[in-house]
Predict the 3D structure of the following.
Amino acid sequence: EVQLVESGGGLVQPGGSLRLSCAASGFTFSTYWMSWVRQAPGKGLEWVANIKGDGGEEYYVDSVKGRFTISRDNAKNSLYLQMNSLRVDDTAVYYCVSSPFWGQGTLVTVSS
Amino acid sequence: DSQLTQSPSTLSASIGDRVTITCRASQSISSWLAWYQQKPGKGPKLLIYEASNLESGVPSRFSGSGSGTEFTLTISSLQPDDFATYYCHQYNSYFGGGTKVEIK
């Protein structure tokens, strides 16, 4: 059974940083693209970033380019999202996704 | 990269109606598309994977079709539990804008 478990969310001030983690199990992690998806309060789903199985390619939505970095450690079956220069509009539930499977999400709140 | 255009954005329907939601990709994505249902305050629920495969436990009134750039989600007979927002999703990439199914 595929399991994706996020951690690392919380409250952070504007301009601050946060690192999200996702522990994956139940599949051969290193062979699959992984992504982060978010949903702001009352808004739709938004793809944030993705990364190839071997880590050799990564892509970002324009609004986070230069601020967020996606990475993975295939030895630990883990996915990460380093979020810097956080803004109020980054407030959202962040989900770890290995399509079509999702984690339960972790809430990131950016507020002073 | 392909982006998804979902229509309609809102749909008003009655119990028992046949409902169809469309998702168009800007370039071919083969069958790498999923459909999700979301209700207020809840996470997305997988309905259809790889464009046409029904997720285990999902009622058979839901079906998906299409490949390449044109995809549809059909609910054959709308039930009270189906009033929700539906999203198409290119695997590990963009989402459609969502379709809110409301009671007529």
